[in-house]
From TrEMBL:
Residues 7-110 form the NAD(P)-binding domain. It holds the Pfam family NAD_binding_10. Residues 310-332 are annotated as: Disordered. Signal peptide: none annotated. This is SDR family oxidoreductase.
Length: 487
C-alpha cells in the first residue's frame, strides 16, 4: 500500500519506516527538515516531503495520492503542546478526509478509566478523538511504557537502576503498569494496514506482564547483574519533584520526565485485548519484560540503536539558516575561530572529529564542561547526559550531548547546534581540509547570535575562558589525531 508517515524523524517513526518497506509498502515521509534523513539507511527508498503538521498546504501535499497515514507526532516539549497538538490533529483529520485516505493509524497512551488525567494523557486522548471523528477509518493504539533501546521510558528506567543503589521513591512506583516491547509496538503498527474499513476505534496494547515500577527497577537490576536496589518509600514526592530528580540523574530532561511520570501516577494497564480479533499475536507471542530488557541492552552493547528519544526534531532547529549564511538578515554575531596545522592525514583528523562527545568527551577542561552541563540540567536543559547513539559515527539530526547534529559533510565538516539554555543561538563547526604540502588544516568555529542585552553580557562574561576551552579543544583534537596516526 501507499503509506505516508508523519513523525519519521522520531523514535517510533524512524523504526517503523524500514518495517513498512520490508513488508513491500511504498513509503512517503513528511518532515520539517529533510536534511535530518541524509544518513538514515532507508533515505533513498522513500519519498520525502518537507512540511509541518500545522501547515494545511504541506499536509495536503504529503497526503496526495496516499492510502494509509501513520500519525506519530507529538509537541510534548513545547510550552503550549496541548493547543498545538489539537490544531495539528484537526488540520490532519480534515486533510485526510479530503484526500480520501483509507486508514489513519495513531499511537497514543492507555487511558485509565474514571480518573482525572494529566495534561499529557488528556492531550493524547483528545488527538485520538479528533482523528477517530475524521470520517476516515482510524485505529488508535494505546500503549503504556515502551521498553526498547533508546526509548525515553527505558532510558529513565535504566539510569535510575544503574546510578542509584538506594532510592527514595514516591507512592506512584507501586502503581501497576503493563509495559510493551518496542518490537511488539512496531508489529501492531505495521500490520494496521490489513484492518478492514469497518474498524474505527482504539485498542489497548501491552506485553504479557503487569508490574509495578518498583518491580521493573528491581528486575532491570537483576538482568543487568546489579546488586539489589534498596528502596525507601515516602509519601511526599510529587510528580513534579520526581521529574526534577529524574532530570538530574538520567539523560531525560524534565520537559519529558514530567509527562512520563504524570502518566505513571495512574495505573496504566490494558482494559481489553480486542486487537487479537483483528491482528493475531506475534508468532512467538508477545515479548515479556525481561526479554525486552535483554534485547534493548544487547542493542546498546552492540552500538545498534537505530533511533533514540532525543532524535525528535525541535522547531527552529536544522532548517533555520546559519547566521553566517549570505541570506541571513544580519545583526550582531560573535565568533571564536581556531585553526591549526597537523601532520595527521584528513581521514584521521575526521575520525577524531566525528567521535567527539559522549564517552570521548570534548577534549578540553572536562571539569568546566561537566559544571556547565550540570548548570544546564538544573535550568531544565539537555545537559551532557544525552551522550551519543554510536561512539564513532554520527548522522544529521541526532542528539550529541547538549548539541544536535545540524549538518554533516563526511569527511569534511561537522556543524552542531546548541540545545543548552543560553540567551541566544549557538553553533560549533569542526572541519578538516587537506593541506597542499601534506597534512591537514583543522578549523574550529564557535558562533553565537545573542538575544537581547543578556546575550551580549553572556558572551562577554564567558569570553575570557575561550582560550582554555576552545583553544584547548583545538590543540587536543589535533594532538589526538597525531597520536592516532602514530599508533
Amino acid at each position: 500500500m501507499r503509506c505516508v508517515v508523519f513523525g519519521a524523524t522520531g523514535y517510533i517513526g524512524g523504526r517503523l519506516v524500514p518495517e513498512l518497506l520490508d513488508m513491500g509498502h511504498s513509503v512517503r515521509v513528511m518532515v520539517r527538515s529533510p536534511g535530518k534523513l541524509d544518513q538514515v539507511p532507508w533515505r533513498d527508498d522513500v519519498d520525502i516531503v518537507a512540511g509541518d503538521v500545522t501547515d494545511p498546504q504541506t499536509v495536503a501535499a504529503a497526503l496526495d495520492d496516499q492510502e494509509v497515514l501513520y500519525y506519530l507526532v507529538h509537541s510534548l516539549i513545547q510550552r503550549d503542546f496541548v493547543g498545538i497538538d489539537r490544531r495539528a490533529a484537526q488540520i490532519v483529520a480534515t486533510a485526510a478526509a479530503t484526500a480520501g485516505l483509507s486508514r489513519i493509524v495513531y499511537l497514543g497512551g492507555i487511558i485509565p478509566p474514571g480518573e482525572r488525567l494529566s495534561p499529557h494523557l488528556s492531550s493524547r486522548a483528545e488527538v485520538g478523538e479528533i482523528l477517530l471523528a475524521s470520517g476516515v477509518p482510524t485505529v488508535e493504539f494505546r500503549a503504556a511504557v515502551i521498553i526498547g533501546s533508546g526509548s525515553a521510558s527505558f532510558e529513565m528506567l535504566r539510569y535510575l537502576s544503574e546510578r542509584l543503589p538506594a532510592m527514595v521513591t514516591p507512592r506512584w512506583v507501586r502503581n501497576r503498569i503493563q509495559p510493551i516491547a518496542i518490537r511488539d509496538v512496531l508489529y501492531y503498527l505495521a500490520r494496521a494496514t490489513t484492518l478492514g474499513p469497518q474498524v474505527n476505534r482504539s485498542f489497548d496494547i501491552g506485553g504479557p506482564d503487569v508490574l509495578t515500577y518498583l518491580d521493573m527497577l528491581r528486575r532491570y537490576a537483576a538482568i543487568a547483574k546489579l546488586p539489589r536496589r534498596a528502596v525507601v518509600p515516602v509519601p511526599v514526592l510529587t510528580p513534579w519533584l520526581s521529574a526534577q530528580w529524574v532530570n538530574l540523574v538520567t539523560p531525560v530532561p524534565k520537559a519529558i520526565a514530567v509527562p512520563l511520570i504524570e502518566s505513571l501516577v495512574h495505573e496504566v494497564v490494558c482494559g481489553e485485548h480486542d486487537i487479537a480479533d483483528h491482528i493475531p499475536d506475534p508468532p512467538d507471542g508477545l515479548t515479556g519484560f525481561e526479554r525486552a530488557v535483554e534485547l534493548a541492552l544487547a542493542r546498546i552493547r552492540d552500538f545498534d540503536v537505530p533511533t533514540r528519544w532525543s532524535d525528535a526534531a525541535t522547531p527552529g532547529a536544522p532548517s533555520d539558516p546559519l547566521p553566517t549564511d549570505p541570506d541571513w538578515s544580519g545583526g550582531t554575531l560573535y565568533q571564536d575561530v581556531r585553526e591549526r596545522h597537523t601532520d595527521a592525514d584528513p581521514d584521521t583528523v575526521w575520525q577524531v572529529i566525528e567521535s567527539i562527545g559522549g564517552e570521548h568527551g570534548w577534549y578540553s577542561f572536562p571539569l568546566a564542561w561537566s559544571i556547565r552541563g550540570w548548570i544546564d540540567r538544573l535550568a531544565g536543559g539537555a545537559g551532557l547526559r544525552r551522550g551519543r547513539r554510536d561512539p564513532h559515527r554520527l548522522r544529521a539530526g541526532e542528539a550529541l550531548d547538549w548539541w544536535r547534529v545540524e549538518y554533516l559533510d563526511r569527511p569534511r565538516l561537522l556543524r552542531l547546534r546548541a540545545e543548552m539554555r543560553v540567551p541566544g543561538d549557538a553553533w560549533l563547526e569542526l572541519s578538516a581540509e587537506p593541506e597542499p604540502g601534506g597534512g591537514t588544516r583543522y578549523r574550529q568555529c564557535a558562533i553565537f547570535e545573542p538575544h537581547g542585552l543578556s546575550g551580549h553580557i553572556y558572551w562577554k562574561v564567558i569570553s575570557p575562558f575561550h582560550e582554555i576551552v576552545f583553544g584547548g579543544m583545538a590543540r587536543n583534537i589535533t594532538g589526538a589525531a597525531e597520536a592516532q596516526a602514530r599508533s
